[in-house]
Every structure is written in structure tokens, then in C-alpha cells.
Amino acid sequence: MRKIIALFTVTATLFSVEVLHGLPYSSFQSIKHHGFKTEPQFTEKYFSQTQDHFNFNTMGNGTFNQRYLITDKYWKKGYGPIFFYTGNEGNIWEFAFNSGFITELAAQHSALVIFAEHRYYGKSLPFDEDSFNIPQIGLLTVEQALADYAVMITELKQQLAATDCPVIVFGGSYGGMLSVYMRIKYPNIVAGALAASAPILSTAGLGDSRQFFRDVTADFESFGPECRDAVRGAFHQLKELAEHQDYRRIQSEFSLCKPPSSAQDIHHLNGLLRNAFTMMAMLDYPYSTHFMGSMPANPVKVACETMLSGSDLLSNLRNTAGIFYNSTGLLTCFDLYNLYLECADPTGCGLGFDSLAWDYQACTEINLCYESNNVTDMFPPMAFTETDRKLYCSKRWAVVPRPDWLKTQFWGDALSTASNIIFSNGDLDPWANGGVRKSLSSSLIAVNISGGAHHLDLRGSNDADPVSVQRHEKQHVNQMERP
Ligand SMILES: *[C@@H]1O[C@H](CO)[C@@H](O)[C@H](O)[C@H]1NC(C)=O
Ligand SMILES: *[C@@H]1O[C@H](CO)[C@@H](O)[C@H](O)[C@H]1NC(C)=O
Ligand SMILES: *[C@@H]1O[C@H](CO)[C@@H](O)[C@H](O)[C@H]1NC(C)=O
Ligand SMILES: *[C@@H]1O[C@H](CO)[C@@H](O)[C@H](O)[C@H]1NC(C)=O
């Protein structure tokens, strides 16, 4: 514990390796259970950001307003470290509200906290309402986003007289990927990174395309194999109705606003249903949350209880999907094409403008060719191959994906020469096995959060946090408190 405090209060520009030997992650974690519950109290600001970092002709010196949130409530001015959240695919307030851990940690370490919004998301639109047109969408790349953060950090440090303060980046999911990339691409600016639930391998095209939906299935299976069987059985019944083109019956069983009328509609319905299970697995937190939708506590358990609540499997499946889509209880019917968008990410793109931006990223640099097959998972066979991706992306965005580019540029699994990165993954999270699960060196540390869903560890402390994690942390704290 003393070591990590030393790390954060010295104005070193590097994490020292010695510190990383001292189980830094558990020091991060230990904070959560020592009674620090803090409100973010951020101020919303805008930064004048370069539109195109890599071509001096296209946009000249054009700029746009990039949103960021900042709080110096805990900061020891000019001296304490800077905790910088590398924003991902959405409104930055969502991430700030759901990453209370970072402010709790900042309170402990007298840190300045900044949450930066990713270009093309939320209010950080480089071309305002034209941002999602072709070719304006073309400045949406991982490289531009990283350059935004590098430039922003550098300038804000000057403005705030913080040039000597070390910067630690934080991120969850795609934001965690960005944290890793910041550390390997801009080690001159970033001293270390905490990447929570960052699937840096699977999104680089490494690994098994069946892994994601297999791991979603495993979460429901762990409630009991009968849960998995009920889901599979319900999809089987839906398939039979579809084969008989019994569209009226499908409409009434699933409370659809309009009767389906084609194989495409059935495919879409299957995608919508599968997406509900995906979201419940990802957001399987032990307390209710409002993050990427509203979820009850332990949604996987709630889903399984619903799936097993009577002998009518189809109505059980409808009600299970309703846990996610009908959390308000206000839906009178399910509108297939309004509730779910099919896109280049088979795990879902969400809705609204943010979904357009994410679809474009999934069509260019981020590989998400995951399939379900009803063998290694409980879902209907729905492939999404590299060929499917290419076809879709050239139609939708007039781009051809470059499956190898992310791996080439950000090292893929050949990370051993990087340093000062902590990769944390919850074992309930279907994204976990797309990330780094084993430590690669004394300063590239993998941590398992037992009982943890998608970046649970970034969330503020909660009395319902898994006991296993608390126990785990206590051990580490004890270890660290030894002289
Ligand atoms: C660059 O910015 C300056 C100051 O805002 C402006 O006067 C100038 O016209 C710009 N140049 C180009 C090439 O856009
Ligand atoms: C949504 O939930 C409410 C409250 O439980 C329920 O009455 C309604 O039927 C649900 N809507 C659909 C489409 O299932
Ligand atoms: C899944 O596989 C089972 C066993 O082969 C089969 O009976 C069922 O129809 C399949 N379900 C779907 C939705 O394809
Ligand atoms: C985390 O769990 C995975 C899966 O059980 C395992 O393969 C890995 O070695 C564990 N990693 C650490 C750092 O304990």
C-alpha cells in the first residue's frame, strides 16, 4: 500500500517497475472497500481539437469542440497525478457516472480526474450533424482518437500548470483498448494504464470467432444447464414456427407490433433476442444499474428464473427479452427494427448516433466477426464471417475492412516489450477471453475479478460487490501491509 502511494505522489514521469511488483492492482482495488463513496462533481468543458491530425491539407487547421469532464476536487495542484479516462463509444457522462472507482481512487491519491469524450460520440462531433455522412465519417479512426487524447493531455497539462504530473490512463472495454494503445503509442505522455475488460486480442482478429457467444452461454449455463436448455428449446420452437411461416402466431407469442413477413424479419428477431442475452451477460452486476440500458440486480439469474417460470417456452423467451427491452414496463409491443439494429458488431451497436459511429468502427479497424452456431452456444446459427462483413460494410459505408491493421498497428498479442499496463477481466464477462488473461511480464499484469461482469471493477464501490472479490482484496491488502 505504501508503495503505491509513493508512486502516485512522486512526480516521476514513469511508473516504476518496483511499484508494479507491489501488486498495484489490488491497491487500486483495496480502496473500494474502505468506505470511500464519492460523487464525481465534474465540470463539463470543451477542448478545441484538431480535426485531422494526419493530413495537413484536407482540413487545414480546422478544429472541432471535444467534450471533456474534469474535477480537481481531490487534486494536489501541480503535484498529484492525472487520471485520464480514454472515452469510448458513447456519451462521456455515462462512463463518468459508471466509473466511480476512478474518483474514489483519485480521492486517495490527490489526483486530477479527466474523462475525455471520443470523437464522433456524444457531443464531440467533428462535423456537427454532417459527421455521419461519407466522407466526413472518414476521420473516425482509432489513431485520430488517440492523437486527440495525446494533444488534449499535453495542452491541458500546460494550461493547468501540471507539466510534471504523471498521467495514468483508465478505460473500460473499447476504452480499455484505447488505454493500452495510449501507453504503447504515447509512452512519452502516459506513464501507465489500467485496461478493464479490454478485448484487445479478439478485436484484433486473434482467437476463436465462437468464443463470445459460447461465453455468453456459459453464464446462463452456470445458473443451471436447464436454463441453457430452455433457451435453446425456445429458439427451436421459434424456428419451427418460422419454417411453417406461421407469422401470426410468432407475432402474438412475441408481442410484435407488426407480423414478421420474411426470413429477414425472423433473422432480425433472432438477433434482437440474442442481443438481450448478450446484454444481460455483460451487465450481470450484483445490483441494479443504468448503464447501456436498465438492468435489475443479477440479470442472468432473473433471466433464468423467467426462462424456467412455466411450460410456455416462447412466452418465457419474450418475457426474458423484456427484462432488457421493456425495463420501463411501458412497451405495449416489440418493434423489431426500432429496438435493435443489425450492424457490423454482432454483439450489438446500440441505438442512435453513437450506434452509427460504432458501426463504422466495426466496419474499418475493429474486428467483431463473432458467430453463434447452436452447438458451442445456445443461440440460433447466425454467422458473421469476414465475407459478410465486407459485403455489409461496402454497402453501408463504402469501405472495405482491413482485418489485419489493428494487429499490425497495436501489436496484437506481441505485447511483451510494452510495460506498465494492468489488464483486468471479470470471469462473468463474455469479453474477458478476448483480452489478456495471463501476466506477460512484471509490469504487464493480468488480474481476474472473480464474480465480475463487464468492467465491474471500474464501478464505484457497492455493498453488493462480490464477496469473492472482497476476500481476494483483503488478502492482497494484508500482503501489502506486511513490511
Ligand atoms: C488557420 O487559422 C488561422 C487562425 O484561426 C486562420 O486565420 C487561418 O485562415 C487558418 N488557415 C487555414 C489554412 O485554414
Ligand atoms: C412490458 O412490461 C409490462 C409490465 O410488466 C407488461 O404489462 C407488458 O406486457 C410488457 N410488454 C411487452 C411487449 O411484453
Ligand atoms: C439447435 O440444435 C438442435 C439439435 O440439433 C435442433 O433440434 C434445433 O432445431 C436447433 N435450433 C436452432 C434454432 O437451429
Ligand atoms: C484468470 O482466469 C483464467 C480463466 O480461468 C485463467 O486462464 C488465467 O490464468 C487467470 N489469470 C490470472 C492472472 O489468474
Automatic annotation (TrEMBL):
Name the Pfam families on file. Answer: Peptidase_S28 (PF05577)
Q: Name one GO biological process term.
A: proteolysis
**Could you tell me which InterPro entries the record lists for this protein?**
AB_hydrolase_fold, Peptidase_S28, Ser_carbopepase_S28_SKS
Name one molecular function that GO assigns to this entry.
serine-type exopeptidase activity
> What does UniProt give as GO cellular component?
cytoplasmic vesicle; extracellular region; lysosome
User: Which major enzyme category is it?
Assistant: hydrolase
Catalysis: reaction(s): Release of an N-terminal dipeptide, Xaa-Yaa-|-, preferentially when Yaa is Ala or Pro. Substrates are oligopeptides, preferentially tripeptides
Alphabetic keyword roster = Cytoplasmic vesicle, Glycoprotein, Hydrolase, Lysosome, Protease, Secreted, Serine protease, Signal, Zymogen
Q: What are the Basic and acidic residues biased-composition ranges?
A: 470-483
* Compartment annotation: Cytoplasmic vesicle; Lysosome; Secreted
Q: Which residues form the signal peptide?
A: 1-22
Q: What is its EC number?
A: 3.4.14.2
**Spans annotated as Disordered:** 459-483
| Recorded family membership | Belongs to the peptidase S28 family.
Subunit organization: Homodimer.
Job description of the protein: Plays an important role in the degradation of some oligopeptides.
Protein's recorded name:
Dipeptidyl peptidase 2
Organism, by scientific name, is Perca flavescens (American yellow perch)
